[in-house]
Amino acid sequence: MDLPEAHRVAPGRHAIHATAVSCSGRGLLILGPSGSGKSSVAAQMIALGATLVSDDRVEILEDGRLAPPPGASALIELRGLGLVACPVAPAPFSASLLLAAPTARLPEPETLDLAGHRVPLLRHAAAPDLGAKLTLWLRALP
Description:
This protein is mainly beta. It contains 2 helices and 12 strands, in the order E-E-E-E-H-E-E-E-E-E-E-E-E-H. The chain has helices at about 40-45, 130-140; strands at about 5-10, 15, 20-25, 25-30, 50-55, 55-60, 65, 75-80, 80-85, 90-100, 110-115, 115-125.
């Protein structure tokens, strides 16, 4: 899958089709096509203590934060269950995940350049244990 692009929506603000969560003060941008499991991974992480930044559409701010679009509802879609209210908060743009098959069991580090910010990029297929692995990985980031 090609990496999606962020689109400028206002001075200092870019929007992208994604979901984002915050864990240990680090914001994770979750990328993938519709139906790939972005909200499901976020829900797993929220159940483990992460905070929702935004579901379905995320803004990348010039100052390096991930944030919900202005006026966005504080909801996450739980496929098959509906929309659920969830506290939201902006977070520093610290890492990104592309829901796709990984390139190797222990892949070489990759980065993503998006809206003027460079962050680590992980590639991983949606899996039942992915939320737990990402939570541990974010806690371990320097």
